[in-house]
């Protein structure tokens, strides 16, 4: 395959991966509708940063450890599952009762960025995916380091566009989503989804 064909095939595969509903989609939608678009974008930037962290690990060969070490994979898997459980329980026990797009300090905004990073970095399947997937699209004779970051950048760009689409779409439903009962329902539903993702991650195998 030519370089152009490789990039086209990778872009298509990365787009399908991004559009597949998962934890990132849940996090962005919930944050956009309950916390506001600004915080949701911070969470999206955190997810993007997590992708670049995984890309760096893969580029420098450290990410391959997850592919060969059962202990490393299991440790990260349980850390990720525990973190998702903590998020889910928080949303179930302390759901918000009103929608607010302005009521946030810098600290809480940064917290959503951090949550985006942690949700991504503590998911070992992202690491295994990058380790097994990215090398297939690096042309022979080209720098693996440069191409790894290029492919991650394409994935991040697609993910950012999708996140922005979700954030903008959530605004059209803001009237309904401002109702306290709806906000509480969304938080608790998201909490249940996070717990399901945690269980799925904990029971997953490579």
TrEMBL record:
<feature type="transmembrane region" description="Helical">
    <location>
        <begin position="145"/>
        <end position="165"/>
    </location>
</feature>
<dbReference type="InterPro" id="IPR001123">
    <property type="entry name" value="LeuE-type"/>
</dbReference>
<dbReference type="GO" id="GO:0015171">
    <property type="term" value="F:amino acid transmembrane transporter activity"/>
</dbReference>
<keyword id="KW-0813">Transport</keyword>
<dbReference type="GO" id="GO:0005886">
    <property type="term" value="C:plasma membrane"/>
</dbReference>
<feature type="transmembrane region" description="Helical">
    <location>
        <begin position="75"/>
        <end position="93"/>
    </location>
</feature>
<keyword id="KW-0472">Membrane</keyword>
<dbReference type="Pfam" id="PF01810">
    <property type="entry name" value="LysE"/>
</dbReference>
<keyword id="KW-0812">Transmembrane</keyword>
<keyword id="KW-0029">Amino-acid transport</keyword>
<keyword id="KW-1003">Cell membrane</keyword>
<protein>
    <submittedName>
        <fullName>Homoserine/homoserine lactone efflux protein</fullName>
    </submittedName>
</protein>
<feature type="transmembrane region" description="Helical">
    <location>
        <begin position="46"/>
        <end position="68"/>
    </location>
</feature>
<keyword id="KW-1133">Transmembrane helix</keyword>
